[in-house]
Amino acid sequence: xxxxxxxxxxxxxxxxxxxxxxxxxxxxxxxxxxxxxxxxxxxxxxxxxxxxxxxxxxxxxxxxxxxxxxxxxxxxxxxxxxxxxxxxxxxxxxxxxxxxxxxxxxxxxxxxxxxxxxxxxxxxxxxxxxxxxxxxxxxxxxxxxxxxxxxxxxxxxxxxxxxxxxxxxxxxxxxxxxxxxxxxxxxxxxxxxxxxxxxxxxxxxxxxxxxxxxxxxxxxxxxxxxxxxxxxxxxxxxxxxxxxxxxxxxxxxxxxxxxxxxxxxxxxxxxxxxxxxxxxxxxxxxx
Amino acid sequence: xxxxxxxxxxxxxxxxxxxxxxxxxxxxxxxxxxxxxxxxxxxxxxxxxxxxxxxxxxxxxxxxxxxxxxxxxxxxxxxxxxxxxxxxxxxxxxxxxxxxxxxxxxxxxxxxxxxxxxxxxxxxxxxxxxxxxxxxxxxxxxxxxxxxxxxxxxxxxxxxxxxxxxxxxxxxxxxxxxxxxxxxxxxxxxxxxxxxxxxxxxxxxxxxxxxxxxxxxxxxxxxxxxxxxxxxxxx
Lengths: 287, 235
Ligand SMILES: Nc1ncnc2c1ncn2[C@@H]1O[C@H](COP(=O)(O)OP(=O)(O)OP(=O)(O)O)[C@@H](O)[C@H]1O
Ligand SMILES: [Mg+2]
Prior knowledge:
The complex is a heterodimer.
Chain A: H1 2-32, H2 39-56, H3 61-84, H4 92-114, E1 128-131, E2 134-137, H5 138-160, H6 162-172, H7 174-179, H8 184-206, H9 217-231, H10 236-256, H11 262-276
Chain B: E1 2-11, E2 14-24, E3 29-33, H1 40-48, E4 55-60, E5 63-64, H2 70-75, E6 78-81, H3 93-100, H4 108-121, H5 123-127, H6 138-151, E7 156-160, H7 168-183, E8 187-192, H8 195-201, E9 204-209, E10 212-218, H9 219-224, H10 226-233
Parallel strand pairs in B: 3-8, 3-9, 6-7, 7-8
Antiparallel strand pairs in B: 1-2, 1-4, 4-5, 9-10
The complex binds adenosine-5'-triphosphate and magnesium ion.
The site of adenosine-5'-triphosphate has 13 residues of chain B, from strand 2 and helix 1.
């Protein structure tokens, strides 16, 4: 039983990270219909900025996380302005190729500066809480708490503020949004900024219990795509719940089935769910 | 108020509007009559800034707005209630209406006042205000669309076939509201195929065919015009 609860905790940790990354991906998809393959690279850059600020500059963990969020938000907006915006009238394949271009570019830049070695961010909270047989590392609790707080904040922002509503409006009816005077550029920049910040925060939360290296975004990105396909492209609750499903499946599958194959589980689940419900779990779109 | 001079619009190489010159004066209710595919929606979208004109000039109160973004037109007081409504279907009626007032978002008091007026004009929307707009009936959705446009506090309200697909009784209600909005001081440009009902509440009308304006006149002239009666009223 303790083992099981321990794995649930691990699942929640993974699920909240995946959820944050998938949220950004789904928001961008919802308004631009671009599958942003560069999103994993933004996640990776977030981890490196956090690493740089904490290890090389010696800053506090939270300051480093805020810096990562700010830098990656800016970088994400630049991608939109310099790459996706000029391609807005081009066929969709151009966006996809460009996104892969950004991905390769960012990885190359990071590798040029930091090399391909694995790096570590020191765990700022090393305490381990014990509840009976359960061990609860503080960093994991921080990840779960932080991720859910952020999702809650994003939910309130999107549902309760006029600027947040413009993002949903743009996703639900683009022309309708134009006709009430919503500016497409503003919404696109805001969405990319939010997506970038979420990815960077996810990376900064996760990095202390993981490794930092140039290709670290690949698997996360693939899983985030699995999640938003599962959850329904553009669906916000779909991204959160899909993230948790994949997180739990991976933690439990990795423990009870085979840890070697834990990264395959997400994809097996994708095939299974899509063969039962081909449109994804949440098909109503952004709500 | 609104003036077009020699406006052309194209879809790729297809010229959908050809030398449109027209004007709408403050306080008027002007009807744009045209059959399917005549170019009514294209004309509205060109005025609204969703499409850029290929030639010509559009002015609002003497100010050149040719080629400006839709948000600039809304800010200038030109608001379109589009064909097919283009609501935000997953959002509540209330959020749809509030988003209609997006350009006035900093003026909360004014926005609430307009909202009250809109809900008073369409009491059914008050009842349904928390329901997703997409779950309403066609007629109710049309009211949300008109209400949303009114939330932008238009000086010129452009209505693109608001009666399309509605039951006759509902059509009558919609036209009554349109007449009321005009009587309360909003200038209106109304695109319709439902010529008789539209002309009854109009001051003037234009007829558009294949992207060109072919006829114009005041209500009596149009109602009495043999060609108009034949083509659009069927009598
Ligand atoms: N997106 C588009 N691409 C290419 N051609 C278009 C497009 N939209 C409209 N057209 C063409 O432009 C012409 C004018 O269309 P428009 O929609 O403006 O007519 P309308 O008067 O609004 O018709 P309806 O009464 O059916 O709404 C038509 O010939 C139509 O086929
Ligand atoms: Mg039309």
